[in-house]
Amino acid sequence: MAVAGGSGTRAWVEQVEKSLDKASVPSVAASRRSIYRVPACIKDGDPNRKVYKPRVVSLGPFHHGDPELAPMEEHKQRALRHLLRRANQRPRLLPELVASVEVVAEELESAYYPDLGDWWRGEEGRERFLEMMVVDGCFLLEVMRAAGLHERNTGGDYAPDDPVFSHHGVLYMVPYIRRDMLMLENQVPLLLLQKLVAVETAKPPKTHSKANLHDVRFRHGVLSIPSLTVDDSTEYMFANTMAFERLHVGAGNDVTAYVFFMGGIVKSAKDVAVLSSSGIIQNAAGSDEAAAKMFAIVSKDVVLEPESALEAVQREVNAYCDKPWNKWRANVIHNYFRSPTSVLNFLAAVVALVVIVVQTAYTIIAFYYN
C-alpha cells in the first residue's frame, strides 16, 4: 500500500494498524468499572451542579483529601475504633478485615478504572488504598447501624453527645452524610461492604427486595404509582442515578424513565397536592411548590427511551384521555365534584331539575285528560 508523507506518517499508520486488534477487546478492568467521575457535559447541563459534589464526607478516592471534608476523618477513625471495640472477643478483627479486602483489592481498584490517580498506585499506593477502603467501609456500616438504632429508639455504645452517632447526631448530621452517600463520585464498591459485613458478623449479608419504580400500571382508567418520599435528598438521588445510567453500559434506563414520567405528571404545586392526597408522594420537601420545582429541575432535558415500559403506559394514558366520553366525564368530575360543597350544589341542581320535569309531566297529563 502506498502511503503519502514521510517516515513519521508511515510510523503512525503502522502504529494504528497494530492497535486495531487491541481496540476491539475491552480490558478486564474496564468491564469492572462501576464508579465514575461525572463529566463536564453532564454537570454543565445541570443548573444545580451542587448535587454532584459531597459537602460533609468523602467516600472512596475521588474526593479523599479534600480540605473541606477533612473534619469528618476524625469521626471515621472513631467509628472504626467503636466497631473493633465492640468485637472484644475477636482481638484480630482488624487484620481479618484488611485481609478480606486485600483479597479483592484489584477488583475494588477496577471499580474506579481509569480515574484512580497515581497516589493509589504501586505498593505504597495499594496500602493507602486498602486503609481508605477499610476506614470508609466501616464508617458506612457504623452510620447505618446508628440509623437503625435510632429508628428502634435503642441506645448504642457512643456517647450521648457524639456529634454523629448519638440520637442527636443521627437526627441532625446523618441526613447530610446520607445525602453525600448518594453521589456518584462519592462511592465505595458494594463488594467492599459485603466483605466487611461477612467478616464482622461471620456470615454473609442478607438481601432484601424493594419496590420497583417501574411498578406503574394503568388499568380501567386508574393510574397506580408506587409511593415516593420527597425530601431534600431526592434531587441528589435522581440526578446521580441518572448520571450513572448515562455512563454505565448495561445500567438500564429505569430511573431516567421514572423521572421523565413523573415530570410529565407534576407540573405545579396542585399536582403535588393531588398526588400527596392519594398517598403517591410523601412530601417532606417543605412545601408543594418545593416538590414541584424539584421535579421540574431533575426532569429538564430528560429523554425517554422508546422501548421503556413507562413509555407504553404513557401511550395508554394519552389514548384514554383523548376519548371524548372520558374527557366529558373528567370535566364533570373536575367542575362539580371537587369538594363536598360542589357535590351538594350538583345534587341540589339535579333534584331541582327532577322536580321541574315531574311538575311539567303532571301539567301535560292533566291538560291531556281535561
TrEMBL record:
The chain crosses the membrane at residues 346-369. Keywords: Membrane, Transmembrane, Transmembrane helix. This is Uncharacterized protein. It comes from Urochloa decumbens.
